[in-house]
Write a structure and sequence with these properties.
Helix content is 35%, strand content 15%. By secondary structure, it is an alpha/beta fold. It folds into two domains: 117 residues, Aspartate Aminotransferase, domain 1; 259 residues, Type I PLP-dependent aspartate aminotransferase-like (Major domain) (Aspartate Aminotransferase, domain 2, 3-Layer(aba) Sandwich). The strands form five sheets. It has a seven-stranded mixed β-sheet with strand order 2-10-9-8-7-3-4, with helices on both faces. Helix 6 links the parallel strand 3 and strand 4. Helix 11 packs across helix 13. The longest helix has 38 residues.
Length: 440
């Protein structure tokens, strides 16, 4: 195995794990512990964690309040242990829940067809890319550089395996450059992938992008990592997108140390046979009674095997159920009000941070909005030596934001701040006071 991987030492398999997280020497095996002793040992280890008392981290994972009803419904055994509903006569409850989920996603995305979910947002975006390139080997896919860097890495992996050429579209003032987009489009272009709100929190002009994309004969894919924005912004379908894909974890899943995710994907009717995964349909039986079944199954591998469009052997039905419950509990008005809270609190935070005068007599550190474009609940701040500032605040128990330099070297003195309904005005003021207290 090492020879095939061109490695000389098994330790190279773990090179992605930082040295600060790896033991200096192999741990000695413990003797058998009782349940009580094990629980005590785990509690001691957990006590070594030092989570921040306040966190404004975002960058694709956002804290949102999850109503108790979500966990209550998810914990029911008939949902919690379900797998694949290939036998509709014994899976009507699960099928109906997934059908309701699809209907809600269709409403939010403004597109007429959605599947019963995928594993996560990055996988959904990759599947959307494959939908664009179906029947066009060697096609080009244009990807905006404002798309989440982790998501772009997944796209690159999928594209390499399928022989697709990825080209990046540069950005201006935090948004995709329309001039660059127009210059990169060609007869080889099969799809254009843009994220809105993008990685900088900026709302992209999808309607403007759709015109040249469609004129070039390509599909427009609208990616989203903050699904709550769909309750407030123009839907991808209304903006002219052919496919909407992204992460739906904001709908009732919580952060959960990074997972699980919820892959959301929807499309126009003419692309529905390219849609991966399961699609639940509503029908009637021989006596006219309504029922639910899996439909258009010829796309899946249990029918066509290796000729299937995409080998999605399972999905996060439980996560889709959580999203369904969350959306049903909040309702259309509640979801919009929650999104408005996110918008207003984030804009309040930017206003307060931008107004900081620096050190006494107006000297010292300044904080400026990095971009002038509209944003939803996340924004970028420019300030000198941002990485050191964030480390100092972290020592004080405040995770003020994510540095942009590791993924965008040209944005060395920039960091992202995310604000949601979980942050009170007091939390925001505490962040502002902490920033004001760190001056040159």
């Amino acid at each position: 195995m090492l020879r095939v991987l061109e490695m000389s030492d098994p330790e190279e398999l773990f090179s992605d794990i930082g040295p600060e997280l790896r033991p200096l020497e192999p741990a000695a095996p413990d003797p058998g512990l009782s349940e009580q002793e094990t629980m005590r040992r785990v509690a001691v280890l957990a006590g070594r964690n030092r989570p921040p008392r306040l966190s404004f981290l975002g960058g694709g994972a956002y804290p949102h309040y999850v109503p108790a009803a979500v966990d209550a419904v998810m914990s029911r055994g008939e949902f919690f242990t379900s797998y694949t509903p290939y036998q509709p006569e014994v899976a009507q409850g699960g099928l109906q829940a997934l059908w309701e989920y699809q209907s809600m996603i269709e409403s939010l995305t403004g597109l007429p067809a959605a599947n019963a979910s995928l594993y996560d947002g990055a996988g959904a975006a990759a599947e959307a890319m494959l939908m664009c390139s179906y029947g066009r080997p060697g096609a080009e896919i244009l990807v905006s550089r404002t798309v989440d860097p982790r998501l772009r890495a997944v796209l690159s992996t999928y594209a390499a395996a399928r022989g697709l050429a990825l080209k990046e579209i540069p950005f201006e003032d935090g948004a995709t450059s329309m001039t660059a987009l127009a210059g990169l489009l060609s007869p080889l272009s099969a799809g254009v992938i843009m994220q809105s709100p993008n990685y900088f929190g900026v709302v992209e002009d999808l309607s403007r992008a759709a015109v040249p994309v469609h004129a070039a004969g390509a599909f427009l894919v609208a990616v989203c990592t903050e699904a709550l924005s769909l309750a407030l912004l123009k839907s991808p379908g209304e903006a002219g997108a052919d496919i909407a894909a992204g992460e739906g974890a904001s709908f009732g899943l919580g952060l959960s140390y990074g997972g699980p995710g919820l892959g959301v994907i929807a499309c126009r009717n003419e692309l529905v046979r390219r849609l991966p995964g399961r699609i639940v349909g509503r029908t009637v039986d021989m006596e006219g009674r309504p029922g639910f079944v899996l439909t258009l199954q010829a796309r899946e591998q249990h029918i066509r095997r290796e000729a299937a469009l995409s080998n999605v052997c399972s999905n996060h039905s439980l996560c889709a159920l959580a999203a369904s419950v969350y959306l049903a509990v909040l309702g259309r008005e509640g979801l919009r009000r929650t999104a408005e809270l996110n918008y207003r609190k984030a804009h309040y935070a930017l206003e307060k941070i931008s107004a900081l005068p620096g050190a006494p007599h107006g000297k010292g550190r300044k904080f400026q909005a990095a971009f002038t474009r509209p944003f939803f609940n996340e924004f970028a701040i420019r300030t000198p030596d941002a990485s050191r500032l964030l480390r100092e605040l972290e020592d004080g128990g405040i995770a003020a934001g994510l540095p942009l330099e590791p993924d965008y070297p040209e944005l060395k003195d920039h960091f992202l701040v995310a604000v949601t309904e979980t942050h009170s005005q007091g939390d925001i003021d505490t962040l502002v006071d902490a920033l004001a207290g760190i001056c040159e």
